């Protein structure tokens, strides 16, 4: 019966959600920073502009994922 559905209970603790958020941030900054460093070397950009741009884009993407998936 459709009327007897109980709400889903989240078994995630606050710590696991926090660690997931930290993981998203570190992974986003690390992966996109690395890709930016590769672009730096490929295009011979001055003073790590690609690395910094990649890190900022990675952080922004990570924050988007945190808000979208974790609802923080």
Number of helices: 2
Coarse shape: elongated
Helicity range? over 70%
Contiguous uncertain segments of 5+ residues: none
Query: Which structural class fits the helix and strand makeup?
Result: mainly alpha
Q: What is the number of independent domains?
A: 1
**How many strand segments?**
0
N-to-C series of helices and strands:
HH
Q: Which value, in Å, is the CA radius of gyration?
A: 18 Å
Task: Output mean pLDDT.
Answer: 86
Largest sheet: none
Topology:
Blueprint: H1 14-43, H2 49-70
Helix pairs in contact: 1-2
In words, what does this structure look like?
- This protein is mainly α and 72 residues long.
- It has one domain (16-70).
- The chain has two helices and no strands.
- The two termini are 33 Å apart.
- α1 runs antiparallel to α2.
Compose a concise summary of this entry.
This protein is mainly alpha-helical and 72 residues long. The protein has helices spanning 14-43, 49-70.
Keywords:
elongated, 72% helix, mainly alpha, 72 residues
């Amino acid at each position: 019966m459709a009327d007897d559905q109980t709400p889903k209970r989240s078994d995630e603790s606050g710590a696991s959600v926090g660690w997931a958020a930290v993981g998203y941030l570190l992974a986003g900054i690390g992966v996109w920073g690395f890709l930016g460093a590769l672009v730096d070397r490929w295009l011979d950009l001055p003073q790590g502009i690609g690395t910094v741009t990649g890190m900022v884009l990675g952080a922004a993407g990570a924050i988007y994922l945190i808000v979208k998936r974790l609802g923080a």
